[in-house]
Amino acid sequence: MIPDLTDAIVKITSAAPNNDGFGTAFVIARDERGDYLLTCQHVVEAVGETTICADGVAAQLIAKGSADGFDLAVLRVEPPLSRQPLRLCATQTPCSQFITQ
Question: Which of 10, 36, 74, 96 is deepest in the core (most CB within 10 A)?
Fold first, then answer.
């Protein structure tokens, strides 16, 4: 059975009125105050590092790579979003199912 991953997906946009850039992120961790999101660095560049919104809520850039290198970024949003964190694992078990969405 394939799990429904859509509840972890977050829309990333810009708070700047003249910027229509957008992308997606995934909730990867949660604590009592907020969520950590994983997205691509090129998405952060498209929406602007200082104007990032996650599902319409202001988000803070915590860590970033580069769009032409390690193209990942971690965002923080408070309070937690109404999304479920994506369960991640460090390794892939041989012959197990791999799912992408």
Answer: 10
Structure token digits, residue 34: 């907020």
SS3 state at 47: helix
Q: Which residues pair with 12 in a beta bridge?
A: 23, 54
User: DSSP character for 46?
Assistant: H
| pLDDT tens figures, 42-77 | 999 999 999 999 999 999 999 999 878 889 999 999
Phi/psi at 33 (5° precision):
-105, -25
Q: What is the pTM of this model?
A: 0.83
Closest-CA residue to 65 (of 48, 37, 45): 45
Residue labelled with tokens 């988000």:
59
